[in-house]
Amino acid sequence: MRLARVLLVVLLFSSMAAAYTIPLPTFYPTETYHKTLTVHSIEDASADKDYSDGKVTYLYLLHLVYSYPSAEKVFSKYEELESVRKGYAYKCRFNLPITREMSGKYLVMCTLIKITGNVDINTGTWNFGWKNIGDDNGVDVFKVKKIPRPPQPNIIARIIEILVNFFKSMLM
Amino acid sequence: MKAVVFAVLFLTILLSSVFHPLMSNMNIDYNKITFRYTCAGAGSEFSSPGPSGMVKLRYEVVPNNPLEEYVPANPETLDQYSFENAVCSVESVKVKAKFRDGEWRVVSLEPVSCNVTELRYECYTKAPNPGLCNYYFFAGGECYRCNIRGWIEILAKLPEDVRDWDVKLRDLSATITVPRRFQPPKIPGNLWEQIEFNTYFHFINLPSLNPALNS
User: Consecutive sets of 10 residues in chain A, 172 residues long: mean pLDDT of each?
Assistant: First the structure.
């Protein structure tokens, strides 16, 4: 009896989870996706572009749009920053025209990237590493639907209509 | 007689190698050129002591003998170094000073600062014998007849009881360091791709995004 109750609760929750879907904002070609996403820095950092000491640091606010699940890049932009403060909000403004080629779900991302470079003085080559220093709040998902095909004219109905009209005119 | 001639020849060779201080102390590394500078040019200027006993020693950086100085590098190699950002430090400056008691004695000055006010290199023709450069620097490097010229300014303090002074051009030991002119780094294209792809995978794996992605 107790096992049955547990099973019932599990079934209930799983069906609820399956039914739990978020209605995504939907766009059609010719429309434009407008959205401002906010990301917070998880650390203090400053850009250092003076390469003469063999070290550099670059900071970027990355705007990114990818299709999901096909993982094709639709849009990317790197906005260079001089410094970031821990906990401060940085905004990515998206104005993305929806094209006729787009269809399905799209992931919109806004995050902070820190790129550091160090020169290898023996070879003169620069080696770069990067780190995501944004929190996970700068994300959105939207859907693109194709414009539905216009209804096809019903040819048979049109022929019948023409014939009916013809016979009507004959009878009159 | 032969012994005397041999001794004179030997001494000449020895002295010419000793008094070749500028280039013999030069070291070209990947990230800097360093040379010990112990021989000033005849154009060097020395100011009179101020009220605080400070003197300005303006040393002319010149090779000992322009026709015999060889920099073991080619013009392209030297151009990779930032001569405009050269710095110097003083190990010792000696002067002959006449003290209150009327005696002349050699004293070491207390250097306050050292600044490179001008430094440049001049390359002329290829050296007739590449062996003059001792070694080849970098791939394809050739031996050129190059000089390094310029000026360094040293501020130093004279002892208080000095009444007169005289400077000998060789009584100096300073180090000049020329840093390498690094090329501004370019972020490789594959790094941007890596950043974008990893960012995408980071976000799609967020549990909070699952309902939206699976709807």
Answer: 55 46 86 97 94 90 96 96 97 96 96 94 85 96 90 83 87 74
CATH number at residue A151: 2.60.40
Of A21, A54, A141, the CB nearest to B209: A141
Which of B2, B191, B177 is closest to B90 using CA atoms?
Answer: B177
Comparing CB atoms, the residue among A105, A124, A130 nearest residue B191 is A130
Indicate the number of domains in chain A: 1
Separation in Å, CA of B26 to nearest CA in chain A:
19
Residue of B nearest to A126 (CA): B185
The count of other CB atoms within 10 Å of the CB of residue B199 is 23
Give CA–CA dist B123/A160, Å, rounded.
99
ipTM for this prediction: 0.78
Q: Where are the domains of chain B?
A: 19-194
Residue at A90 is within a domain: yes
Residue A153 belongs to some domain of the structure: yes
